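dumping the sequnces here before i forget
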Amino acid sequence: MSSASMDGSSSQKSRGRRSRTDAGGGAVTLRDVAKLAGVSVATASKALNGQPQVRAETRARVVRAAEQLSFSPNTLAQGLITQRSGTVGLLTSDLEGRFSMPILMGAEDAFGVDEISVFLCDARGDNVRERHHLRALLSRRVDGLIVVGARPDARPSLGRDLAVPVVYAYSPSADPRDLSLVTDNVGGARMAIDHLVQYGRRRIAHITGDATYGAAQDRASGAVDRLAEHGLELAGDQPWFGSWSEAWGRGATRMLLQRCPDLDAIFAGSDEIARGVLDVLHQEKLAVPSQVAVIGFDNWNILAANARPPLSTIDLNLEQLGRLAAQRLFAAIDGDVGSGVETVPCRLVTRESTAPLG
Amino acid sequence: MSSASMDGSSSQKSRGRRSRTDAGGGAVTLRDVAKLAGVSVATASKALNGQPQVRAETRARVVRAAEQLSFSPNTLAQGLITQRSGTVGLLTSDLEGRFSMPILMGAEDAFGVDEISVFLCDARGDNVRERHHLRALLSRRVDGLIVVGARPDARPSLGRDLAVPVVYAYSPSADPRDLSLVTDNVGGARMAIDHLVQYGRRRIAHITGDATYGAAQDRASGAVDRLAEHGLELAGDQPWFGSWSEAWGRGATRMLLQRCPDLDAIFAGSDEIARGVLDVLHQEKLAVPSQVAVIGFDNWNILAANARPPLSTIDLNLEQLGRLAAQRLFAAIDGDVGSGVETVPCRLVTRESTAPLG
DNA sequence: CAGGCACCGGAAAACGTTTTCAGGAATTCG
DNA sequence: CGAATTCCTGAAAACGTTTTCCGGTGCCTG
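..and the predicted 3d for all of it:
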């Protein structure tokens, strides 16, 4: 071997040829494998890819050579000719990673590890950064894109002329011709209400976050509607909108206890708010759940599981959403592009902050 | 799932030539640009890459053609010949993304968006999954790797024969010849103590997490040592190890209040623990910070900023750690490989749970 | 024994770039 | 005016694969 080019002496970049038994996925190429196995590159390729037109004995020889050199095929070259990079881009605007991470994990599950790798790009809510990332990803010839928003409201479409399929997760695209996957906030709220009603609660209040969030509206209307179907009304007359914070949870609870001291359950629009609610209930010596039941939303584990008592809540099934996004993306890559908004159901997580009355 | 896929009629692979004004980073290649500009591929390449050997007028023509076709160079092909993929792998085992996300963001900052893209892989603490991801990343010819651990204790090295440089972040590698970047737990603890002492506190207790964590040990010993330098001792005689949970924070605080009712500050080993501490202090009607000051560790925003009162804490500077990791990786890629463990200083975040005594 | 067939392996083109090298035109100099 | 120099452009090789096609065996069949 080594013959090839002894130019190494001069060049400043000492990319010298590796020794024969090069460990690690170094610069060993299919040619090296072929040479060691005593076959041509073409045959080596076919042998390793399980093509039928190669004798078993030959194949074995090639495979042995490959692992002896710990050959690892150059995915870039493969992608160049197959026109598939085997990568997808996950474009998020979610600072905390609260939503992206579970979705990423779901997606990783759905794509096999050795099939697809994921580029993660955080646009940080900045539009120009998003365009930059988009350019970069397209330039890398990703096979598809998953766009994860920071909040469950519609976001501008990336556009319809994009050369690769796109799936929007969590934040739907404003363009209904795109395919979007979102959590079922209405359904989740109904679950929460059903749970409380089933436990004998009748005077249920709802404290939730910023009214400009679609999620807040959906959860509130889901709650109101479902209560109505049970022949009930919201304690405190209306949903209390505010902000997604513990502080608001505390403030709203104090106010609420003034207005209707006889309530027996509070449905909080998020786990953060629920923490604030719990805090004030303790302060006011109201026992949870025996006097007042509390249920949250999101199943943000660090908040919900560590609450006192541990918080019943509605899980968003984000990981499943990620898996689904990946599956839909796969389908789209294979030519089966969908459109519209698809909804992923929530899941009730029962802990100790809710219990049957009496 | 509408129309679209009904192309099945004819060829299954409809890779036809695009129309001239193809928008989106489609299949438009440098050849197309060259043709439109009336030059050769070679010249087009040089023109776009700012090579000096091309006339200004020609360059302009090429550039115009390129943007007219919205040409976007195929990074795979580029990587194939330059031997640089322009990608790095971020290999994490950190489920929640509590540590990975800030580090990822720091790394993204340090790499320019259009220079380097990041593959994010979550091994979920599973060793074989990690090997798989590693294989895949090497196969994709990443230019480097950042390995992010889930806890700040040494982890097994990926090995020294890896063909690409590796930087370990948060969890150091067990092999001292690797380069690792970690947070300064000892220094952070000293900061916390200094802060409390400066505010006139003298009877300071320390409640912290799992004793098997290096972080717990480091923070504890940092606290003890620094107190000693101030001529003080830990209230409650020793650091109280337990678990990284609110529940332990609550339990330990109750116990501590029994043993030394006169303490005037609690240094918690994490923000979670601090939340538990605050909870019990309220319950016992001890005013924070006037009677007892509380300081946490981690600056986990959702916990610290929303506490009542907002929690002073020690920030881990994870984003900076990520930036630094990226810089070190760059250096290593350029041949300047380092080794050993480098420490990133913490930062004191003052909120309302600490204040001068009296 | 000639022709057909199944089987196996190799040569070569292709993917989309970058880079080296050579050559033509225009300019300058002696 | 011829030669040397500078400037620009293009042809071709290279990167590491996959895939198509073709040719050479050896074997069976007529």
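Chain A has twelve helices and eleven strands.
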